[in-house]
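Quick entry, no commentary yet.
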Amino acid sequence: MQTLLILGATGRTGRSLLERRLGQGGRVRAIVRRREGLPESTRNHPRLELVEASVLELSDRELTRYVQDCDGVVSCLGHTLDCRGLFGAPRRLCADATSRVCRAIEENRPARPVRFVLMNSVGVQNPDLEEKRSPFDRGILAFLRRALPPHKDNELAAGRLHRDIGRQSPYIEWCVVRPDTLTDEGLSACRLTASPTTSLLRGRPTARANVARFMIDLVDDDRLWDTWKFRMPVIMDAIDSDA
């Protein structure tokens, strides 16, 4: 099991992913702005290498070094849901971090493609599919695109992988994971679909623990990766009617 680079490890989904990976016996390198954002038992784990820095403030040389021996990158970066997080700088956190990490990977010219998993949003469209949205949902998305910088940032981040990296890079393969309505519930059965199945205002609950498990499985499981690479799966908790 190779080293996994995690961005956004101090967020609620990122912490779940980090703890799960360490519990599996894996080695993790995490770039975090504040190490105090992790429990003491986690930040002192012998298989965890913490880099205390903003991914946007690291030099190109430093970032290239930090991705050099990682066979997978998972980004759980996001904006905090307060006034500063929604409207303050950096407004392009997810998109710019995605671009910088991808350039660092390409600079290293790895022998096999690095798997880049981006946690995104169910409100982001997959350009490869004619995803059906109701007029009401289209109106909501148009409003979010103009009024809330985090939504535009999520769109740009997904676009950096879909458009700029595409399917031809010899150094990067990618998957954009679109959770529905995130909750802090425990692990459960989950459902994966190629496109959203509900209105934005009737979202399906999605446990962060389920999202974390799926993203780690993507990095580790070749069959699962071959199913979802270069795609944008929607993940949600399973309900009885899914059976």
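second:
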Amino acid sequence: MSGQLTLVRHGETTDNLKGVWSGIRNVSLTEKGRADAVKFGEVLRDKTFDLIYVSQLKRSRQTLEGLLKGYGQKTKAKIRKTGAIDERDYGRLAGRDKWQLKADFGTHAWTDIRRGWDVPIPDGETLKDVYERVVPWYKEIVLPQLQKGKNVLIVAHGNSNRALRKYLENLTAESVRFAEMDLDKVRIYDLRPNGRAKRVLIRTIKTTRTHRY
């Protein structure tokens, strides 16, 4: 029997609040983001984790800290930090106001850059590039643990989680455009032996969403 895989996206950051594309900028959570991270732990209290993987970026590590606080019990899970699940590198667009970029590029081009599968960014990564580092890592490192029946938690980012979802849920390049990783949702996967999703359960925390992320 395969273990369960749980995906969490980091909480609200200072760049989210400003409407700025972060990419690999090492920004922090806001107070709201820290509070929401605790709530992630609260909705996962019935789960047991054997392994936890977290990205190298500060916002995901702060989210994990809050999650473990909300979890409210000691965990014997091994925690491992990895760059394989870092956020997409937005290159020259990192740190810029995404809504001003929308006005500059036009809605269609902006949406392609933001949501498209292999639309290039100057000095940055496409979602396809992210997929090509996340999925091999998942197959080599995570899947063997799941196949042993271990439960795994991944705390990462919107695009690294979207890339993994493309594989898990067998999404097409077109349908992945619509695959959101909201800041208020946890995704819990029951898996097939090959590591793809058999069933997904979504849990939502109670939070206030006042900004466009």
